[in-house]
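User: Some background: our group keeps a shared notebook of sequences we're curious about, and every so often someone picks one and asks for a predicted structure to add to the entry. Today it's my turn. The entry only has the sequence so far, pasted here. Could you supply the structure so I can complete it?
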Amino acid sequence: MLAYDELMALPNLDSLANREALDKLATLIDLAEQLELEEGTERALEWCERLEQRDFTPLEEPEFHYFWANAWGDMQHHRHNDPKVAWAWDQPEQSNQILHLRRALNSTAFDQLPAMRRCQILTNLANQLNTAGRFVEALEYWTRALDLVPDFWMAQGNRGIALLTYGGALYDDGHRDVFLIFAHDDLVTALASEPILDAGGPPSAVAGFQAKLNQVNAYRNVDRLREEFELNNHSLGETAAEQSYRRWCLNNHLFLNPLNDVGPIPLAARDVFALPGFVVPISKPPILIGFFNQMKQEFVSARWLYYEALNASEMHFSDKDVSLFNTLDYPSYSLSVEKLKLAYRSAYSIFDKIAFFLNEYMDLGMKPDEISFAKVWRAKWGEPVRGVFEDSENLPLRGLFWLSKDFFYRHLQEVTEPDARALRDIRNHLEHKYFKVHEMLLQPAGAESERGDLFTDTLAYSVERTDFEKKTLRLIKLARAALIYLSLGMHREERRRAASRPEGLIMQMELHTWDDERKR
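Assistant: Of course. Here's the predicted structure to add to the notebook entry:
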């Protein structure tokens, strides 16, 4: 207790150099967690607020946000032991964890941190996203951690448990079995790595992984199940161009197919994901199926436009003899750039359409011109989450709600994506103002610059092409995850409705898939 008392006796860390201040902050956070003293965690959070004003070096910046996220994690542990509270959709402590872990991850010196620290940041972020219901995106961060340190057992074990959760939410039995195989293998690998407890996670994690593995083994014979699936012997297309495209989609986890989330397996190289079976009055046409078809088509088209823009190797003939002037700020003009813009706009538009879908499916009664991806969850700005969502214990829909926090809205204070305002501003300028892409940017990226010289366009929102490509890919991945959460959330809701529905005749309506030959 002596070290803890000494730290608590410090009014602040203002007189200490950056490195010493960070060391004391980290020590207090660890001690407060070990001793389960909320007062210590509160003091650490107060110190973080004051330290935020400092000029940290590029290497100190991500460590500071990592420690800050840990303090918020401890506060969440103090306040959310009650399962009912843990199921609440609004979780300020968790929002702050995600925000600061992302700030650490997005810092300029992240790649210069020790591999173990990077793994901890990636794994903690994945854990928080998964808890929020964003299991699709969480898998990518655990995989990145394992690419850095293959025997990082906490990432391996937590990924295995998340695959069980994800698989359990699926409505396709075959897909569920494939997830079971990969989850089993992750848990076996995590437990076989002889975890170093003080370097990778708490002792309770080992017991938790073992318990999950025991459940899997008791449920199915995984070795026998493995023999039923051929994951890799599947065609990726008839031409080299198609094969290259499908391989790129697999490697970037961009097929609308949950199997693509277990890895780049050829079996997943088809956009087969759709809505689950659902019940509507007999007089109602299949409007939700048509709506999901449209969003799905817009997604795969945005994905293709992005791929074409990324892989353009020469000028397109449509750009020939188009007279454009060099404005001396390295502008980027081409059909490929316009395809990037179209992909960005199309992907961004999917989120409000999902809100429009939810308004119909959940019978929320919102006026069409009032619907948005942020507003659909509450009757009015500032009010609690609608009871139809809050009381549902629907993890995929909660994931969709938490995904909405990645977008900036002026009425909302809580945002979990540091780049949220930039994503919104880009869309706003693309749709209504002046958005300019540069091969090389001579000024900081962002809104209209006030700098007045010959090389600065003071009217445009300027971005560098490579940065715009990254942001567009991120939006496309978010759109894919959102469509998956929507369908799986609907599946969970249909199971809830079935349990409370009075017995009666339910007739099936059979719909056939649209022939590829008719897609012209």
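Suggested note for the entry: The two ends are 73 Å apart (CA to CA). The beta strands are 435-438, 461-464.
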